[in-house]
Specification:
CATH topology of the largest domain: Beta Polymerase, domain 2
Number of domains: 2
Radius of gyration: 19 Å
Strand content: 5-15%
CATH superfamily of the largest domain: Beta Polymerase, domain 2
Shape: globular
Structural class: alpha+beta
CATH architecture of the largest domain: 2-Layer Sandwich
Order of helices and strands: HEHEHEEEHEHEHHHEH
Largest sheet: 6 strands, mixed
Number of helices: 9
Distance between the termini: 44 Å
Helix content: 40-55%
Strand order of the largest sheet: 5-4-3-2-1-6
Number of strands: 8
C-alpha cells in the first residue's frame, strides 16, 4: 500500500488496514480506488479488544456478480491472515457518494462476514455524515473534494425512527432477558455497552444533529439525565474501555433503566 493515513491519526488499527489493502490489491488489483475509515476509529474511540474497523471502500464501478465474487475471495484471504481483527463496511462506487445512501444494494462486510444479498444497513445518513465530517482517508481524494451530500434533517429523522423501532425492540429483549436472570447471575459486559451506549448515540444525534462515539455519547447523555442514570452511563462507558467480562444483574438492570429513559426522551422529540 503506497497511501497512508494522516500520521497524527494512526493507531493500532493502521497495520490491520494496511494488510487489508495489500490483500485486496493482491487478489483484486485495481479494484479498490478509495478507502476511508469511519466508525469508532474515526471518532477517536476505537478499542483494540472490541472494536471492528469500519470502512467505506470505493470500487472502480458498482460491483456486479463477478466483482462481488472477487471481493469475497479477497475478504476470505484477509480473514485468514487477520483472524483477530475484522474490517467491516460497504463497497460502493464513486457515484454512490453523490446521492442518498439509503436503498442502495452493494457488497458489504459485517462481523467478519461478507454479504451481497441484501441492502447494507451501514449505507445510511449517519455513515455518510461521519464519512464527510470525521472520515480518515487511507486511499483516494481528500474527503472535501468529494462533495458528499449531507442532510442533517434526514439524519435526525433516521435516528429517531431507528430508536423508535430497532432500539425499542432491543430494549424489550433486554428487559425480557433480565427477567430470566437470578440475582447471582451475570451477563457479558458487551450487553450494556451495546444496548445503552448504542441508544445514547441515537439520542446525541437526535438532539445535536452531530455524531459522537459510543463513549462520548454515553457521557453526554449521562450528564444530561443526571442522578443515578449519570452514574450508570459513566460505569458503562468505563466497561467499554475494558476487556469483555461478566457484570452483575444490578448494573444490567440499571443499564436497562437508563436505556428506557433515553428512549423515552427520544420519543418526545419532534421528527
Amino acid at each position: 500500500m503506497t497511501e497512508t493515513a494522516d500520521e497524527s491519526r494512526r493507531d493500532d488499527w493502521f497495520d490491520t488496514i494496511r494488510l487489508w489493502v495489500d490483500t485486496f490489491d493482491e487478489i483484486a488489483p485495481r479494484t479498490i480506488e478509495g478507502l476511508y475509515v469511519v466508525g469508532s476509529v474515526a471518532l477517536d474511540d476505537g478499542q483494540p479488544h472490541s472494536s471492528d474497523i469500519d470502512v467505506i471502500a470505493i470500487t472502480t464501478e458498482p460491483a456486479d456478480e463477478d466483482m462481488a465474487g472477487t471481493l469475497l475471495t479477497a475478504h476470505t484471504v484477509f480473514a485468514e491472515r487477520s483472524p483477530n481483527r475484522t474490517v467491516d463496511g460497504p463497497f460502493v462506487a464513486w457515484g454512490d457518494l453523490l446521492a442518498s445512501p439509503q436503498g442502495v444494494t452493494r457488497p458489504w462486510m459485517l462481523d467478519g462476514n461478507f454479504h451481497h444479498d441484501a441492502e447494507c444497513f451501514e449505507l445510511n445518513p449517519i455513515t455518510w455524515y461521519t464519512l464527510a465530517t470525521y472520515g480518515v482517508r487511507v486511499r483516494g481524494p481528500e474527503l472535501a473534494e468529494l462533495a458528499i451530500p449531507i442532510d442533517q434533517d434526514d439524519m435526525v429523522r433516521f435516528v429517531i425512527d431507528n430508536a423508535r423501532s430497532y432500539w425499542t425492540v432491543v430494549h424489550d429483549q433486554f428487559v425480557a432477558a433480565l427477567g430470566e436472570l437470578r440475582p447471582s447471575d451475570t451477563l457479558s459486559s458487551s450487553v450494556p455497552v451495546w444496548c445503552l451506549l448504542g441508544t445514547c448515540r441515537m439520542f446525541y444525534t437526535a438532539v445535536t444533529g452531530d455524531v459522537a462515539s459510543k463513549s462520548a455519547a454515553g457521557l453526554w447523555a449521562g450528564n444530561l439525565m443526571g442522578g443515578a442514570h449519570q452514574n450508570t452511563c459513566e460505569a458503562v462507558v468505563a466497561l467499554r474501555a475494558e476487556a469483555d467480562h461478566e457484570v452483575s444483574v444490578d448494573l444490567l438492570r440499571a443499564s436497562s433503566d437508563a436505556m428506557a429513559e433515553v428512549l423515552k426522551r427520544i420519543a418526545k422529540l419532534p421528527r
